[in-house]
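Q: My collaborator sent me two sequences in one message, no labels, and asked for predicted structures for both. Can we handle them in order? The first one she listed is below.
A: Yes, handling them in the order given. First sequence, followed by its C-alpha cells:
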Amino acid sequence: MLSRAGTGKTTPMSVAAGKVSDSEKQVSTSALLDVRDLSVSFRDDAGWVQMLNNVAFTVKRGETLGIVGESGCGKSLTALSVMGLLPKRGCRRTGAIVFDGRDLAALGESGMRQIRGRQIGMVFQEPMSALDPVFTVGDQIAETVRTHFPVSQREAKERAVEALASVRIAGPANCATQYPMSLSGGMRQRVMIAMALVCEPKLLIADEPTTALDVTIQAQIMELLLELGQRTGTALLFITHNLGLIAESCERMIAMYAGEVVEDGPVESILQRPLHPYTAGLLESLPGRRAPKSRLSSIPGRVPSAREMPVGCRFGPRCNYAAAACQEPQRLRAVDDRHVRCVRASDLALAGAGV
C-alpha cells in the first residue's frame, strides 16, 4: 500500500491534514484541518431536519485520508461544509472547522473566497457540471490564478498551460483553447485537478474523482493525484465508494453512516480487523470475498431517512450484533489504534478483508 507519511516537504503546496475526532479527543498539533462536532441541518416545509451529526475528524499535513460510505451518508455534505459552499438560507451549521489554525466559520464569505482555491482546492464529482461550458478550460484555470495572485492575463494563461502539462495532458497549449464539451471524461477530470492545484493549495478535497471513468482511466487519475501529492506535500481528503481505491492510496480511512463518523483509523488496521459492524459489512460486500458463482453479500435494509433516525445507534436496525446497550445514543470512543462509534466494539470479532 502506498504511504505518503513523513515526506517533510516544505514547498508552497505543502499541506496539513488531520484526523476525525470528537471534542473529547486530543487535537493533534500537526493537524491542518480539524473538524469538531460538525452538525448540519436543512429546513423544508415540515421544519428542520439534521443531516450531519457531530462529525469530527482531523487531517494531518501531507496525509491522505479516505472517507467511505453508502450514498446519502454525508460524505459530500461534509466536504461542502469545509469549503463553505452550503446554502445561505434554510441551512444551519454548528461546530467548528479549523483550517491551519483559523476558524473558517468566523471568516465570512469574503474570507472564505481567499481560502477556496488558494488554500483548499476541490475536485467535484462531475467535471462536466463543474466546468463552465461557455469558456475554454484555459480561461477557467487562468481566472482561478488571477483571483488569488496579482498577475497579468498573459502570465495567468501561461500558468494555466503549465497546470495542464502537470496533469499529463498531451498538447496542453492546444487543450487550453478547448471547451469542456470537446474533451473526454478523463480529460475533463484532469482539467479539474489542474484547476484545483494551480494555486498550490495545502489541502485537496477529491469528491469521487473517478466516478463514471473506466478502470484504466481511474488508475491513471489516482496515480496522478498521489504523485502530485507526494511531489508537492499537498494533503488529500479522498471521498469515494470504492474501498479498493482507499486500500491502495490512503493512510487513514473514515467510515460514515447516516450522517455520522462510525469508524476512524489506519487503513491497514481497519481492513484487517474492522471494529464497527457497518465497516465489516462494507468489507464483506466486496466482490471476490465469496466463492465463484456464490451470492454476493450485502447489508440488509437501507440507510434510514433523515426524519426517521433511530433513537440509539443509527445502524442498529440493520445490525446483526445489536444489543440492549445499542438503544442508547452512541459516541466515538477510543479503541486500540482508532475511534469507533459502537458500544460493543471491544466484544466483537469481525472479519476483515486483509490488505
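Q: And the one she listed second?
A: Here it is, processed independently of the first:
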Amino acid sequence: MPRILIAEDDRVIRFSLAQNLADAGYEVETAEGVADARRLFDAEGFDAALVDIRLKDGDGLDLLEDLRKDVPQLPVIIVTAFGDSERTIRAMKAGAFEYLTKPFELDVLLNLLDRAVKVHPTSVRVPEANQGNQLVGASPAMLNVWKSIGRSAASPVPVLITGESGVGKELVARAIHDNAHPNKPFVAVNLAALPPSLVESELFGHERGAFTGAVARREGRFELAGDGTLFLDEIADLDLPLQTKLLRVLEDGGYERVGGSTRMESKARIIAATSRNVQPGQPDSRLREDLYYRLAVLRIEVPPLRERKQDIPLLVQAFLRRAGRSSRALSEGAMNRLVSFGWPGNVRQLRHVLENACVMSTAEVLDEAAFDLGTSKQATDVPTWQMPVASELTNLDLRENLERFERELIELALSRAQGNRAQAARLLGIRRALLYSRMLHLGMRGAEPVE
C-alpha cells in the first residue's frame, strides 16, 4: 500500500484529504508544520508527499527542497490556495512533481498520486528565482507557463516558445534565463527585423574583407552570448540555408564566421520563438522538420490575452506601477471594458492602450472614455470584470467556472468588506454560516467555523 505524507496547516482540509486518500487505498500520515513533517519523514519512508506552501511553522517550499535533497526520487506535489508566479517557478525548479491550486477536484489529485507513485522525476537544484521578472499572471493558463519556465530553467536543453504576436514570448525566454543563470549574457535577435543578407553575419560574425563594407572582424550573436542564452525570435523567418547552419550548431556547437575557415564553438543555450505555425506536416510551416524537433525539446505555448482575461486587472496594475503612475486608477466601467475587449494585439496592445490613456487624460481615475480601443469587435455582455466572455464557456468545464466565479465573487465581497466576513455575507445576501461553508469548500483561507 503506497504511503503518502500530507503536510497541511488547515485542520479541516488536512483531515478531509487524509480521509479521502485512505478511502482510495493509500496509507496516510499527516503533519501541520515543517518540523512535524521532517520528523515523520526521518522516521518513516513515503512513496509521495502532498505539501501545502503555507505551513504552521514555515514554508512548504523549504520542506520540498529538503525532501528532494534527501531523497531526489521522491515525488512531491505542492498545493496552495494562492497562485504565485515566483513560487510556482521555484517549486518546479526544485523538482516538484506538480503544482496544484485550491480548490481542486479529488479525482485530479488521485490521478496525480497514481502517476507520482509510479514515476520518479529528475531532481535538479538551481538558484532562487530572479525577483525582477516582468511576466504577470495568476490565471490557470499562466500557471502552466510558470511551471514550464521552472522546468526549462532546470535543464540546459533548447526551448521553443510559441504564441501569437504580443503575448510576451521574449519575457518568457528572459524568465527562463533569469531563473537558470542570471549572471550570464542574454542576447536577443529578432530574425524578422533583419535584412536577409545580414542575418548570417549577425548570427555567426564575419572576418575582415568577407564582403563589401566588412572593414574589420565582427563578433556574431553566438559569440556575444558566450555560455549564456541566445534568444532567436521569429525563428520561422530564417532562410532555409541558414536553418541548416543553425541545425549544425545545435547538433555539435560548431560554426564558422562569414568569410572564415576557423571552427568556432558555441556554448550558448538556444531559446527560439515564433508566432507562426511551425508544426511539422502543416502546409504553411516554414521550419525544417529536423530543426523543429531539435529546437522543441521543450515547448512552451504562451496563451493569448483573450484566454486569460482574469489577468487583465493584474496587468493593468503592473503597467501603471512600472510607468510610475501607481496613483492612477480605473473606474469599474473602464476595467469592465478592458476585460470585455478582444485584444487582437494581446498584452502589447493592452500596454500601449493604457499608456495612451495615461498620457491623454489628466484624471486620477480613468473612465471608459479614456481608452481608445479602435473599431475592433468587443463583447458587451460581460457584467463584471471577473467573468470571461460568454464564448469562452463553450471550451471550459462549467463546474470549474461556477466555482471560479463563486470564489472571485467571495473575494470581491471580502475585499469591499475589508476582510469582515459578516459584512461580506451581508453584501452577498447570504448567511454567514453559508459563506463559511462555501469558503471551506473552495479551500479559501480565513474560513473559520461560525460559533
